[in-house]
Automatic annotation (TrEMBL):
It comes from the Eukaryota. Transmembrane segments: none annotated. It comes from Mucor lusitanicus CBS 277.49. The lineage of its organism: Eukaryota, Fungi, Fungi incertae sedis, Mucoromycota, Mucoromycotina. GO terms for molecular function: sterol binding. This is Oxysterol-binding protein. InterPro entries: OSBP_sf, Oxysterol-bd, Oxysterol-bd_CS. Residues 310-331 are annotated as: Disordered. Coiled coil: none annotated. GO terms for cellular component: cytosol; membrane. PANTHER family: OXYSTEROL-BINDING PROTEIN (PTHR10972:SF102), OXYSTEROL-BINDING PROTEIN-RELATED (PTHR10972). Pfam families: Oxysterol_BP.
Length: 358
């Protein structure tokens, strides 16, 4: 059994005074509600991986993904997709950390070899720099499932907290047998206690899972902890028939622990939907030979500095990558070269994986 992490163990962090003073210095230059994307954050707040790799946390539990296409009942299939989505949030580093902001054209690819002999493939690319956007594509062909979408985070400064507004859509697709599309909108992330108090990471606000063809929607509310009371990491949700607004199921619990589901037609107590602490992250395989723009090679020295807790080295290496990126951008502008994504086609506000057309 994996180690059960308590909420206080994983979601909070006491900052050293030196670290706190750096954040205070940055904060003194900011105005409330300001977009933080152009602000260079100190390396001690970084998790040692790129956002393009961080997205794979939603593919971390194949036991929730692979069986879905075999479920015959529309509603049970929908519940299974909701369960998969809610189980993707508990994997994160200790404390309050954020992944590296990917540079334009950076990509991350990996494969999964599953215990039933099937395999899955994942690729993500940074498809826009201003505003930042990451596009990703995952497929397990034998189980007939595709997960694709984009992430367009916007950071905002609110005094003692920082918000990451998680714009973009996850598309969970069952292409052949059911020909279904589930569209998922994510909650927002908040780092509280940035300047004083204990730093805490929370999810907040509304989130939805929607399948138009089966007329079902799950409306969820990720609740941030009250100042003096309230359970951390709470989420409540209602699965409804969208055309009539009839509530079929109610969901409650913690995305970091136990989640419960109740059939509104029955008077019995809620059933345990999932206890995410019982599941560990499934290993992914990354190619040994990395191209220059692949995340792990691009950020290798920064990662090395963070792992050794050498913040000076980490800062230098982060600056090197960002300076080189600025030089490339200036060069493109001088030569009037338009940058285009390598793995995705731009379709309005959406990004479509090119590999499907071959």
């Amino acid at each position: 059994m994996p180690h059960h992490i308590t909420d206080n163990e994983s979601n909070t962090e006491e900052l050293a005074e030196g670290s706190r003073s750096i954040l205070l210095n940055i904060a003194s230059q900011l105005t409330k509600g300001m977009d933080l994307h152009r602000v260079t954050l100190p390396t001690f707040v970084l998790e040692p991986r790129s956002m393009l790799e961080r997205i794979t946390d939603f593919m971390a539990h194949p036991e929730f993904i692979l069986p879905i296409s075999d479920i015959d009942d529309d509603t049970q299939r929908f519940i299974a997709v909701v369960k998969w989505f809610l189980s993707g949030w508990h994997i994160k580093p200790k404390g309050v950390k954020k992944p590296f902001n990917p540079v334009l054209g950076e990509f991350f690819r990996c494969r999964y070899n599953y215990q039933d002999g099937t395999e899955a493939f994942y690729i993500a690319e940074q498809v826009s720099h201003h505003p930042p956007a990451s596009a990703y594509f995952y497929t397990c062909p034998q189980h007939q499932v595709v997960i694709t979408g984009d992430l367009k985070p916007k950071s905002r400064f609110y005094g003692n907290s920082v918000a990451s507004l998680m714009q973009g859509t996850i598309n969970f697709i069952l292409p052949s047998r059911h020909n279904e599309l589930y569209q998922v909108k994510m909650p927002n992330m908040y780092a509280r206690g940035v300047l004083f108090g204990t730093m805490t990471l929370e999810l907040g606000d509304a989130s939805t899972v929607r399948c138009v063809s089966s007329d079902l929607i799950c409306e969820m509310d990720f609740q941030t902890k009250g100042f003096f009371s309230g359970q951390p990491n709470s989420v409540v949700g209602k699965i409804k028939r969208e055309s009539t607004q009839e509530i079929l199921y109610e969901i409650s619990g913690q995305w970091s622990g136990e989640l419960f589901i109740k059939n509104t037609k029955e008077d019995e107590k809620p059933d345990l939907m999932v206890d995410v602490r019982d599941y560990v992250k499934y290993p992914l395989q990354v190619p040994e030979h990395q191209e220059e723009k692949e995340s792990r090679r691009l950020w290798a020295k920064l990662t090395e500095g963070l792992m050794a807790n050498n913040q000076d080295m980490a800062t230098d290496e982060k600056t090197k990558v960002e300076d080189e990126e600025r030089a490339l951008r200036k060069d493109r502008e001088a030569k009037n070269i338009e940058w285009k994504p390598r793995f995705f086609d731009v379709d309005g506000d959406d990004y479509k994986f090119k590999g499907l057309d071959k």
